[in-house]
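quick q for whoever's on today - can somebody do inverse folding on this one?? i tried earlier but teh output was garbage lol. tokens:
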């Protein structure tokens, strides 16, 4: 398994949310198109915010905790006909369980559980370089935005 982390939630030209997972070297990107509610949930977890009322993934995390279960990892396991598949690995009463999940749900729960996220070597075949993912113009705009954020000139949130 290959460890990855959430780089960010980006948006395609049609404003559909895209989960960007990157390898440890930050050189390969796995883009996964997800729904807006899942994107919001992941963004909330990334920003360390606590919702006024629990979001669905907060509820699931609390349920696991109250039942004595722990999410140990999320694994993006397969790609079939353009659809990604994932598994949540959970330990409860010293028993390991593997639960089928959508990648967005697996990532949202892993973030809340501070659990690692992995992809299989098969899924890694679908990763891209930044050059493959973004055109030259988009790369330059991204560099400008990153520089602005680092200098405090620009602030943007998904909320």
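ok took a stab at it. sequence:
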């Amino acid at each position: 398994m290959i460890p990855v982390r959430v780089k960010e939630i980006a948006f395609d030209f049609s404003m559909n949310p895209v989960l960007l997972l990157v390898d440890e070297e930050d050189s390969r990107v796995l883009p996964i198109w997800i729904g807006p509610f899942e994107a919001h949930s992941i963004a909330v977890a990334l920003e360390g915010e606590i919702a006024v009322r629990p979001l669905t993934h907060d509820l699931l995390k609390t349920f696991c905790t109250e039942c004595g279960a722990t999410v140990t990892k999320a694994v993006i396991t397969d790609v079939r006909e353009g659809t990604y598949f994932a598994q949540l690995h959970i330990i409860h009463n010293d028993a390991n369980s593997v639960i089928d999940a959508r990648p967005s749900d697996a990532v949202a729960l892993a973030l809340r559980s501070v659990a690692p996220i992995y992809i299989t070597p098969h899924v890694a075949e679908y990763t891209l370089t930044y050059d493959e993912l973004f055109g030259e113009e988009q790369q330059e705009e991204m560099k400008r935005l990153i520089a602005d954020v680092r200098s405090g000139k620009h602030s943007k949130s998904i909320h």
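fwiw Residues 2-151 form a domain with the Bifunctional nuclease domain fold (CATH 3.10.690.10). also Residues 4 and 25 are 9 Å apart (CA to CA). so keep that in mind when u check it
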